[in-house]
């Protein structure tokens, strides 16, 4: 290209696409930006993978989203306001414990009556939540530079029963991670802030709610009004969002463009070289945003910033398999009404959890069929990455036989998607690693990193982070 771009965005996942959208909608009428989004695959969306087959519709990546204001506004701006679907927030969630599906208590009265915790476990959780908690101290904490793991934090605050039966399966569902390695202030920053600022979880929650009310902006009438606990999607699946943004980008989006080299020029710009279907292409740009995973970003930055590259390689991504199976509704022990079930480790079940897909969002399976989306593997079971597809299906099917099915009936296999590097792990030392990365990037003005290994893996986190990054880039370009 003969002209210089204002911004090159590498990666057309939800982070890169929402960042491009934010840049192009900047409120400054004097700042008409020339941007380009490159994607090495032949499609957009990154981990978002919506698939349909006949009357079946399923996801092989993220299955739903929490309806944050930023995400809702983005979807409305790209024309998807009439396409929203929201799951009933009153649908129960289940934990498989001692060979039974038990509802997760979602309110204080439910917590008092649940059979998932013993009377002693409930009392321990109550006293801890009210702030009767021993301080974080000891040799283990000293060796961890004062950082607490998720296991250490919740056992200290709420006791071992809540940790094993509620927290650990939730961690498996969000991060597919190891709670003995994930750092609490990185993985669950809001919970950690509540505990540290309020002297206890209950006091911190009350304080946080009061602060949020005082700083809350008026409701945006252009976006749907949702309630806490709802999960969202679109009629044609989550893939509708990246596809809609891509359509608006038009020629500013290039698919099948593989970045092969990135270098700094004498003009304080960046030159990027791509392998494309039309041969080698070069681009010069004032700013570059890498929305790629940490391990990909590490390779890109190796010639530019070796220390940053080496630090990024320390962020692990365990393998996770998404297995989508369909069964006749007659095969189940009971009617499936709910979000799905999670499985704590130690229950003789290898599957991390199962989303009851066609119960969560009706209309995604033919009449008389139930679709289940199960996840298996993660940081506590990396061996899943060595299995063949049929072995993974068999492992999931046998687990479902124990938990949900009343007869041994062969499933209709819709998908087996092994993500060999699935979700970035915010393990101990994560904040120090990010600090080292940021310090290294100070020598590279105009180069930015914007991906889910930074501060949140949910779709709403990606959109929020991209909007903030866009504002920083606009300020840089304005200067």
Automatic annotation (TrEMBL):
Region (Disordered): 209-229
Catalytic activity: coproporphyrinogen III + 3 O2 = coproporphyrin III + 3 H2O2
Catalytic class of the enzyme: oxidoreductase
EC number: 1.3.3.15
Pathway the protein contributes to: Porphyrin-containing compound metabolism; protoheme biosynthesis
Keywords, ordered alphabetically: Cytoplasm, FAD, Flavoprotein, Heme biosynthesis, Oxidoreductase
GO terms, molecular function: oxygen-dependent protoporphyrinogen oxidase activity
Cofactor(s) recorded in Swiss-Prot or TrEMBL: FAD
GO terms for cellular component: cytoplasm
Entry's family note: Belongs to the protoporphyrinogen/coproporphyrinogen oxidase family. Coproporphyrinogen III oxidase subfamily.
PANTHER family the record matches: PROTOPORPHYRINOGEN OXIDASE
Protein purpose: Involved in coproporphyrin-dependent heme b biosynthesis. Catalyzes the oxidation of coproporphyrinogen III to coproporphyrin III.
Protein name, as recorded: Coproporphyrinogen III oxidase
């Amino acid at each position: 290209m003969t002209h210089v771009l204002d911004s090159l965005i590498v990666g057309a996942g939800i982070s890169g696409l929402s960042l491009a959208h934010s840049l192009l909608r900047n409120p400054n009428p004097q700042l008409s930006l020339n941007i380009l989004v490159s994607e090495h695959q032949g499609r957009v969306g990154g981990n978002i993978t919506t698939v349909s087959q006949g009357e079946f519709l399923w996801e092989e990546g993220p299955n739903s989203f929490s309806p944050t204001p930023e995400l809702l506004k983005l979807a409305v701006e790209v024309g998807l306001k009439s396409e929203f679907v929201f799951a009933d927030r009153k649908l129960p969630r289940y934990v498989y414990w001692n060979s039974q599906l038990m509802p997760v208590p979602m309110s204080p009265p439910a917590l008092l009556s649940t059979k998932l915790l013993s009377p002693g476990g409930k009392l321990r959780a109550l006293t801890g939540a009210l702030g009767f908690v021993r301080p974080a101290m000891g040799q283990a904490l000293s060796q961890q530079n004062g950082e607490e793991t998720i296991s250490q934090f919740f056992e200290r605050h709420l006791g071992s029963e809540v940790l094993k039966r509620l927290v650990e399966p939730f961690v498996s569902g969000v991060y597919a991670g190891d709670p003995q390695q994930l750092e609490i202030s990185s993985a669950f920053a809001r919970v950690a802030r509540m505990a540290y600022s309020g002297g206890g979880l209950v006091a911190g929650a009350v304080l946080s709610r009061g602060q949020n009310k005082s700083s809350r902006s008026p409701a945006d009438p252009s976006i749907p009004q949702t309630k806490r606990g709802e999960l969202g999607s679109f009629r044609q699946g989550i893939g509708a969002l990246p596809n809609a943004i891509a359509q608006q980008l038009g020629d500013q989006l290039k698919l099948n463009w593989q970045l092969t080299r990135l270098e700094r020029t004498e003009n304080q710009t960046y030159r990027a070289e791509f392998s494309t279907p039309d041969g080698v292409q070069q681009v010069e740009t004032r700013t570059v945003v890498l929305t790629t995973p940490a391990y990909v970003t590490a390779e890109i930055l190796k010639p530019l910033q070796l220390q940053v590259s080496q630090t990024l390689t320390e962020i692990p991504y365990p393998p996770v398999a998404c297995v989508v199976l369909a069964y006749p509704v007659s095969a189940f022990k009971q009617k499936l009404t709910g979000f799905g079930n999670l499985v704590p480790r130690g229950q003789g079940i290898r599957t991390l959890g199962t989303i009851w897909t066609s119960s969560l969002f009706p209309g995604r399976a033919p009449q008389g069929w139930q679709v289940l989306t199960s996840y298996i593997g993660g940081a506590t079971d990396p061996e899943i990455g060595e299995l063949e597809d049929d072995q993974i299906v068999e492992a999931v099917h046998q687990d479902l036989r124990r938990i949900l099915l009343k007869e041994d009936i062969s499933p209709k296999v819709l998908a087996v998607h092994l993500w060999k590097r699935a979700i970035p792990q915010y393990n101990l030392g994560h904040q120090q690693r990010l600090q080292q990365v940021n310090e290294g990037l100070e020598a590279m003005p105009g180069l930015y990193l914007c991906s889910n290994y930074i501060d949140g893996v949910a779709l709403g986190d990606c959109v929020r982070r991209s909007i903030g990054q866009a504002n920083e880039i606009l300020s840089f370009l304005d200067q």
